[in-house]
Amino acid sequence: MRGISLRSAPVGGVRLLENTIKLIVILLMTCALSSCVVLHEEYFFPQAIGGKVEKQWCRGQVGVDNQLIFSFEDVEVNMDVWEYQGITRLGISFKLQSKAEVIWPQQPLLVTTNETQKSIEVASFRRLIRQGNDSTSETYLVGTIMKKKNNLDKENFYESFIVSTDNVEVIEVSAFSLTINGKTEQIPQSVFSKRSGLFLHPLNC
């Protein structure tokens, strides 16, 4: 059985092979310089009008493109979807700076998977508190004001919701409203589509 040499391969195939080799070399060099590893990963790529997509780690510089961010005055609304052990979850967080305030009004989350829409009850969000290597949380019920308590640059409020226990390829999150700094803001419909690829992951960040 004869192997295929580069000379006998089509020009387009040779260029593709060369480009692939160059990409691998660049990834390896980047890893050596930044203490990262290259991993193949499935993830949910987000899309929404007015939303910005960022990577998962190191302030949006490394990892999969799965963070959907909406920016308001002193507030970032972050959404992401992930799958673990057959369960798909949606995470929603608020990053508050300065004297910003956020309220989640009484409303459900409407999520569509496999052409079926379900209503998810939202009861509360958690304020994440980190002290050294330890972390605790405080619960903020729906309708209450989430705002900074400490002199940190920013504070995060977070909650995750089970979206599906079945295999899903696309998730649609219907538009919902928030009260941000006393003003009603609309988060538009967001779509998360499953993809896969090679990505840099940090060993330290």
Keywords:
12% helix, mainly beta, 16 strands, globular, 205 residues, 7-stranded antiparallel beta sheet, 5-stranded antiparallel beta sheet, disordered N terminus, 1 helix
Biggest sheet features: 7 strands, antiparallel
Describe the strand arrangement of the main beta sheet, using strand numbers.
Answer: 2-3-4-5-12-9-10
Strand content: over 45%
Structural class: mainly beta
**Tally the helices: what do you get?**
1
Order of helices and strands: HEEEEEEEEEEEEEEEE
Using the alpha-carbon principal axes, give the shape.
Answer: globular
Tally of extended strands? Answer: 16
The percentage helix is: 10-25%
Please characterize this protein's 3D structure.
This protein is mainly beta and 205 residues long. It has one helix and 16 strands. The protein has one helix spanning 11-34, and strands at 36-47, 52-57, 62-72, 75-84, 87-97, 101-103, 109-113, 116-120, 124-131, 134-141, 146-147, 154-164, 170-173, 176-180, 183-187, 190-202. The chain has a seven-stranded antiparallel beta sheet with strand order 2-3-4-5-12-9-10, with no helix packed on it. Strands 1-16-13-7-8 form a five-stranded antiparallel beta sheet. It has a four-stranded antiparallel beta sheet with strand order 11-6-14-15, with no helix packed on it. A hairpin with a 2-residue loop joins β4 and β5. The longest helix has 24 residues, at 11-34. It starts with 10 loop residues before the first helix and ends with a strand. Mean pLDDT is 83; it is low at 1-9.
Topology:
Blueprint: H1 11-34, E1 36-47, E2 52-57, E3 62-72, E4 75-84, E5 87-97, E6 101-103, E7 109-113, E8 116-120, E9 124-131, E10 134-141, E11 146-147, E12 154-164, E13 170-173, E14 176-180, E15 183-187, E16 190-202
Antiparallel strand pairs: 1-16, 2-3, 3-4, 4-5, 5-12, 6-11, 6-14, 7-8, 7-13, 9-10, 9-12, 13-16, 14-15
